Amino acid sequence: MRVHVVSDVHGRADALARAADGADALVCLGDLLLFIDYADHSQGIFADLFGAERATEYVRMRAAGLMEESRQMSAALWATLGGDPREHIERAAREQYARLFAAMPTPAYLTYGNVDVPALWGDYLRDGHHVLDGQTAEIGGLTFGFVGGGLRTRYRTPYEIDDEEYAAKVEAVGAVDVLCCHIPPAVPGLLYDVVARRFERGSEATLAAIERTQPRYALFGHVHQPLAARTRIGRTECVNVGHFRGRGRPFALDL
Fold it and tell me: Is the peptide bond before 107 cis (omega within 30 degrees of 0)?
């Protein structure tokens, strides 16, 4: 059996529609939404609402670590639209989710990324879409465990949760053959983004679970240009499945 795995789709509905070609099932590790494109500032919700020039300035501030300044800029821009900013974001997110879930192949096993809005997914799921978070599923005779979302950071993305809540989901999954998470285990080489030149947050709880239970594979995304795309922890092969928005092709797992 062949399973294709994607992560960090960030709006690529065109490539997503072909992501399961030649596979028996698709696994999606989240980050379906594109709020802002750090490579092409004309793309994403922010640019759609405020234009590429404003998006470029916003990216520059965040890249420089000027988080408070970027929030002040963002707040001023949202104020020009009137109403609750959350309503504008939800409307734009719904438009993206409608396209993405229409393109999502079946069967697909999905968990959330840190930029996703879990409360909206239920409105767009189709038969054959299975959403799991802190849960397991049998695929090809193996047990896959799924842990979605990210840990809290200064970026305040929509689905960041406390370390304790995240660890509880890892514990709930237990021993599995394939551990599927959006964020990597807390291994420095897996966490450093060589283009953004920063460490992303990884999970100590996931690392401890891998060391303790030794699944065959630990699959994840989140870090778009990792220093190390894969490593081994004991018998476990840890693999960053790739930045799907940038690559447009899945990671193939033959079971």
Answer: yes
pLDDT in tens, the chain (255 residues): 999 999 999 999 999 999 999 999 999 999 999 999 999 999 999 999 999 999 999 999 998 989 999 999 999 999 999 889 999 999 999 999 999 999 999 999 999 999 999 999 999 999 999 999 999 999 999 999 999 999 999 999 999 999 999 999 999 999 999 999 999 999 999 999 999 999 999 999 999 999 999 999 999 999 999 999 999 999 999 999 999 999 999 999 999
Domains for the chain: give ranges and CATH numbers: 2-34+104-254 (3.60.21.10)
pTM metric for this prediction: 0.96
Furthest-apart CA pair in the chain: how many Å?
55
For 2, the enclosing helix (H) or strand (E) is: strand 2-6
